[in-house]
């Protein structure tokens, strides 16, 4: 399975490779095309190889075109709702603020806090690192349903999607469903549910940007061997695209080489077999296949036995003998019977009788002519009788009878000649057979003698019939034996030739494939060699911006550490791949992994992977960290808070933690954050309380100052108006951002609008009306507290507080609460 990829990052990498390839004068255009296609995907590489589809082996043609991936949607988290899953029984909701900012979800171990994190990770990615990679994963997977309320078992993730507004991701498990048999769906506000989560387009992005990072995952990066960290970095940086490209080139190169490898193996064995054969075709085939570029059509014709002339030699002669034929017994017998019948008919009348009849008929014809001119006279020959009409009628009858006998006799003579010619023609249809060099046919001479006797015919018709009748059986018997012998010899030769012919056909087929593929082998080899030689440069060039950002983060996290992070490089390939992390300990060079504590290693992991999670290309407007500080010492916790404070300027940062040091550090450093408290009651009942959010924290600070007797009144009058302004603006910002993101507004546009609100009324107008110039006088007038607080936050900042400090704090509290309720 190929790694998923981010199209934006991929295009950036393609651009870098294109520049490098264009700068290399040794690469031809075809090789450059293959390199770029390999980086883009298997289908693209195959398409590049199959540009000339008539010249590509069949296995290189892939008509399937991968469907276009859904463009990933940008989204903030609005809520996480869980029921019957892990440590949460009855439905519990984690409300979130869908905008940039920091939210800390705190709670003791076992409170159900991590169940929200795991539910979110499962809904977004379809899995959980904790289940997938822990050694006791089987235990985790067997206890995923809540023990107290296993049903209904469901997860709902509320999203504020850019361009689409409120969207819900749902995961439902029927009562008997296994962990990996959920029903998943996505529903946008006002639309029907769509099955699955593919419409979000997050399948690739969740692997590339890792928006959810847990303590277990960060620790596993260093515990599971050098290749694990390498692969993780390669994936989130899109560097696996280089390895994928090399693998694609290698796979296609292997495919293209296979026909030539197979053809070479076939021809080696075939040459040996042909040389050992005594078949004349084998010798001819061997001559053809030994040529540098064999004529494949000629070899094919030879293999399938195509023959046209006597030049084919022994086989031709054997086939000719096997095809010899003589007239059928029925034809011969019929001709003999006819001949004998005609001979008998002729024998019934002699030639002398025929001549006498002809002379008499001639004489009578003369007499009739005489009678027509001299009617009634006496016969001039004998003087007896009168040549009258009676005589004429009688003579005419005799003349007619004689003419009929003469005609019949002549017809019988013609039929006799025809019958003899027919039989002679049958005799002449019998062909002789010549001896075949190198082949002994035992019955050949017998057949030749029979043919000699057969064609030595007598002249007399009756004798001819007897001759044919006497010699036919011997001829037929001799021919049958000769043909059988020739066919047997042919069959024996064909049996020996058939395997060679099959081998020739197989070789021709494979050789054709090889000739089609050969041109691509060279290009693929060149492309792969170039890719390998430039891979290290590409990897580290791609890593450099992330490494710089990681160094910046480490600079904040290191807090009192004597380990200074140096260069970060990806080194090696295959089983030798690893991440080289250079460091200095008190100025002395050292390998980072060997000198860092467990807490420092977790800090380093965060430094390496937070930059990618915060990438501008990531569709996730949120970053979720589960228990990231449990191995850190107090000083590094402060550094961590500074890091997430910076991230929260552009990202919704959610940190799950059971460690009170995080909330304490946030308060001590004055970092604006919302803190939610998760508690667990009986029967896995989990509740979430809003411990403090930025606006409420300013309110608390206002009360603290107002109630503190040690703070001079003059100080209170100067400070409280500023806290009022900060609290109201923080509440307005929270409301405005939440409303905007729930409608699908883009973050950049939201921030631009907020920057236009330069006064407290403008900020409140944006929150309530969406327009900084909107009239909010009616809203202010609805409550005396609102009028007072807004006045203090406005003119009071310059003039100072004029009323009671504690009253001002109460007015501020009610005003902030009213604003937050407007969400």
Describe the structure.
With 823 residues, this protein is an alpha/beta fold. It folds into five domains: 7-69 and 246-257 and 519-534, no CATH class; 75-211 and 621-687, P-loop containing nucleotide triphosphate hydrolases (Rossmann fold, 3-Layer(aba) Sandwich); 260-323 and 491-516, no CATH class; 329-429, Helix Hairpins (Orthogonal Bundle); 693-821. Helix content is 59%, strand content 11%. Strands 2-1-4-5-6-7 form a six-stranded antiparallel β-sheet. Strands 8-12-13-3-14-15 form a six-stranded mixed β-sheet, sandwiched between helices. Strand 6 and strand 7 form a beta hairpin. Helix 14 packs antiparallel against helix 18 and helix 18 (461-557) packs across helix 20. 38% of the residues are buried.
**Count of helical segments?**
30
Weakly predicted, low-confidence segments: 1-8, 52-68
Number of domains: 5
Report the portion of residues in β strands: 5-15%
- The overall pLDDT, averaged over residues, is 81
Look at the structure and name the CATH superfamily of the largest domain. Answer: P-loop containing nucleotide triphosphate hydrolases
InterPro entries: P-loop_NTPase (IPR027417), Rad50/SbcC_AAA (IPR038729)
GO molecular function: ATP hydrolysis activity
Protein name: Nuclease SbcCD subunit C
Family: Belongs to the SMC family. SbcC subfamily.
């Amino acid at each position: 399975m190929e790694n998923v990829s981010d199209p934006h990052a991929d295009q950036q990498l393609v651009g870098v490779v294109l520049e490098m390839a264009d700068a290399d004068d040794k690469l031809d255009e075809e090789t450059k095309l293959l390199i770029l296609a390999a980086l883009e995907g298997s289908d693209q590489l195959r398409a590049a190889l199959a540009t000339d589809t008539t010249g590509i082996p069949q296995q290189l043609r892939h008509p399937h075109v991968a469907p276009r991936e859904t463009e990933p949607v940008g989204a903030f988290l609005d809520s996480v709702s869980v029921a019957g899953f892990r440590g949460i029984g009855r439905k519990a909701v984690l409300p979130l603020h869908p905008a940039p900012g920091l939210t800390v979800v705190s709670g003791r171990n076992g409170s159900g806090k991590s169940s929200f994190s795991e539910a979110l990770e499962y809904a977004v990615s379809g899995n959980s690192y904790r289940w997938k990679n822990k050694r006791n994963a089987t235990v985790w997977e067997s206890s995923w349903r809540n023990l107290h309320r296993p049903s209904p078992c469901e997860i709902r993730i509320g999203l504020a999607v850019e361009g689409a507004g409120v969207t819900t991701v749902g995961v439902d498990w029927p009562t008997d469903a296994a962990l990996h048999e959920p029903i998943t769906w996505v529903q946008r506000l006002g639309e029907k549910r769509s099955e699955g989560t593919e419409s979000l387009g997050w399948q690739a992005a969740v692997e590339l940007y890792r928006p959810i990072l847990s303590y277990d995952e960060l620790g596993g990066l260093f515990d599971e061997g050098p290749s694990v960290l390498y692969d993780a970095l390669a994936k989130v940086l899109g560097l696996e695209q280089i390895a994928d490209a090399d693998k694609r080139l290698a796979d296609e190169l292997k495919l293209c080489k296979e026909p030539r490898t197979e053809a070479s193996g076939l021809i080696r064995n075939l040459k040996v077999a042909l040389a050992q054969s005594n078949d004349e075709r084998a010798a001819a085939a061997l001559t053809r296949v030994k040529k540098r570029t064999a004529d494949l059509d000629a070899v094919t014709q030879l293999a399938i036995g195509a023959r046209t002339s006597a030049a084919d030699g022994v086989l031709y002669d054997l086939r000719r003998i096997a095809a010899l034929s003589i007239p059928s017994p029925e034809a011969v017998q019929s001709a003999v019977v006819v001949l004998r019948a005609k001979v008998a008919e002729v024998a019934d009348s002699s030639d002398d009788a025929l001549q006498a009849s002809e002379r008499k008929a001639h004489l009578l014809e003369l007499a009739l002519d005489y009678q027509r001119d001299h009617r009634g006279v006496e016969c001039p020959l004998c003087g007896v009788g009168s040549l009258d009409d009676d005589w004429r009628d009688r003579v005419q009858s005799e003349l007619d009878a004689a003419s009929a006998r003469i005609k019949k006799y002549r017809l019988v003579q013609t039929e006799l000649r025809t019958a003899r010619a027919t039989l002679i023609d049958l005799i002449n249809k019998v062909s002789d057979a010549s001896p075949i060099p190198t082949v002994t046919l035992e019955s050949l001479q017998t057949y030749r003698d029979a043919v000699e006797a057969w064609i030595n015919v007598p002249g007399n018709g009756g004798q001819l019939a007897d001759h044919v009748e006497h010699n036919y059986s011997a001829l037929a018997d001799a021919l049958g034996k000769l043909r059988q012998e020739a066919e047997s010899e042919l069959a024996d030769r064909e049996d020996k030739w058939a395997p060679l012919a099959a081998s020739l056909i197989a070789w021709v087929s494979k050789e054709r494939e090889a000739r089609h593929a050969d041109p691509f082998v060279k290009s693929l080899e060149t492309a792969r060699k170039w890719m390998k030689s430039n891979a290290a440069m590409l990897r580290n060039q791609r890593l450099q911006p992330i490494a710089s950002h990681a160094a910046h983060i480490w600079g904040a996290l290191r807090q009192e550490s004597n380990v200074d992070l140096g260069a970060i490089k990806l080194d090696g390939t295959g089983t030798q791949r690893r991440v080289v992390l250079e460091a200095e300990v008190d100025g002395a060079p050292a390998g980072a992994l060997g000198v860092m504590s467990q807490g420092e290693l977790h800090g380093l992991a965060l430094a390496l992977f937070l930059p990618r999670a915060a990438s501008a290309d990531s569709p996730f407007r949120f970053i979720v960290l589960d228990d990231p500080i449990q191995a850190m010492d107090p000083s590094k916790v402060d550094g961590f808070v500074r890091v997430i404070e910076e991230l929260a300027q552009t990202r919704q940062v959610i940190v799950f933690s059971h460690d009170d040091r995080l909330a304490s550090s946030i308060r001590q450093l004055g970092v604006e954050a919302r803190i939610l408290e998760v508690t667990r009651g009986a029967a896995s009942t989990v509740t979430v309380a809003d411990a403090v959010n930025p606006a409420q924290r300013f309110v608390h600070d206002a009360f603290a100052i107002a109630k503190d007797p040690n703070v001079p009144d003059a100080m209170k009058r100067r400070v409280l108006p500023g806290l009022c302004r900060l609290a109201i603006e923080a509440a307005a910002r929270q409301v405005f951002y939440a409303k905007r993101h729930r409608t699908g507004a883009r973050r950049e546009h939201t921030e631009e609008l907020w920057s236009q609100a330069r006064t407290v009324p403008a900020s409140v107008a944006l929150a309530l009306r969406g327009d900084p110039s909107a009239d909010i006088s009616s809203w202010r007038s609805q409550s005396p507290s609102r009028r007072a607080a807004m006045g203090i936050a406005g003119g009071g900042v310059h003039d100072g507080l004029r009323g009671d400090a504690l009253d001002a704090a109460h007015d501020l509290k009610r005003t902030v609460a009213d604003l937050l309720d407007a969400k």
